[in-house]
What we know:
Oligomer: single chain
Helix content: 40-55%
Largest sheet: 8 strands, mixed
Strand content: 15-25%
Number of strands: 17
Low-confidence stretches: none
Amino acid sequence: MTTLRSVLDTGSADYRDNRAALLAKIDDLDAEQAKALAGGGSKYTERHHKRGKLLARERIELLVDEDSPFLELSPLAAWGTNFPVGASVVTGIGVIEGVECLVVANDPTVRGGASNPWTLRKTFRANDIAFVNRLPVVSLVESGGADLPSQSEIFIPGGRAFRDLTRLSAAGIPTVTAVFGNATAGGAYVPGMSDHVVMIKDRSKVFLGGPPLVKMATGEEAEDEALGGAHMHGTVSGLADYVAEDEVDAIRLTRRIVARLNWRKLGPEAKPVEEPRYPAEELLGLVPTDQRIPFDPREVIARLVDGSRFDEFKPGYGTSLVTGWADLHGYPVGILANARGVLFSEEAQKATQFIQLANSADTPLLFLQNTTGYMVGAKYEQGGIIKHGAMMINAVSNSRVPHLTVNLGASYGAGNYGMCGRAFDPRFLFTWPNAKSAVMGPVQLAGVLSIVARQAAAAKGQEYNEEHDAAMRTMVEGQIEEQSLAAFLSGRLYDDGVIDPRDTRTVLGLCLSAVHSGPIKGAEGYGVFRM
Length: 531
């Protein structure tokens, strides 16, 4: 394979400016993610500890294998909404007894672990990841059920959580639940629909209706233990398969359950891993602060792939899209990376062929986004940009090998679709802190609205209000800028997390390992390609 040679000047003023700007964005990101780590705040954290209980992430730390990484997913869920950042649940991928598992842990310091609308969306996304990548699911439950003031947004869609657990089980993907406190109402069905259930003596309470509801509904006076305690479920109802002495014992039992799953990966094994020739630290200065300035994605690839080796496909054709083959943490990948932002007909056709080749070779695809979309204008419309862009989107849509996507800078317009944005179900999608995504740039969008408004005024014979136009442009540009930022998009689960660029190789390696839990098989057919 060809070894990429970097020409990055780490001593230049541009590099230093880019690095400083990106580090500032990383600091901002860390501050927002700290809100999720804080859970319900120090008051409720201290109260939880005084009760002899572990926090959600402390439980996860004991659950996963010592010194193994935990890839947290969607930590900024609910950012910019009326609900707490993190959505009162922690989700991610961790290794338990050598088995990669999808972990879901309620955060009881946030409104008792009650589920709000964003909790559901975050959990659904985690379940989707488990299903498509064939990952056992381990749930660490302590929840009061639905956040009742939000019940109108929870009750109807919330049933999918139960559907997901039963479908995972039916697909042969194990589901394990450990109950650390209350699992009330809908929360009771999580252990009820899991393959394996661990409860804790004098701690776990699982019931459809607690004592107050039972009293109101039937007039019966019932105590917690008799109604849904661990001892009762372990000896009378049979809901508990194991009754632990305390939280640490419950985690021990959960690990033993996973160890006895006899789980095997179905994908090809990784080859020996070789570190890139260039340090990940240099990624910080690669991306210009002005998104209109292009950068060479080969410099990024050189700091991601094994040995910085990359066999480029069609290097002289459709040059604003770089395509080629590499290994990443020992796994083969086909890479599509935007070079100059705009996608022309040549790039679309090149991408279409490359995606087909990857599917014929059963090779996962990595999309490195930095695109302003497909080229517009009379010359390009006449040249067939619509049908050529449609070819590329057809290929992405019907490709069956795993897709991984990282937004490095910009992801605008239909370029987001052709480069496997969220709507095209990549197995994983991550964003750099500087990245943006929208139907088009703020200035362009505001300008389009201005032109349309001017034409409408002219058609009616009215004088156009320039002062109103300037105010409208300022308002629209500000709104679109805010809604295109990484934190806003991540808060709405349009990605699986905003990551430090220096962590990109590690994150992708963890994801590639996860997707190889299932078989890797390419598509055998596509839709009709317009020629």
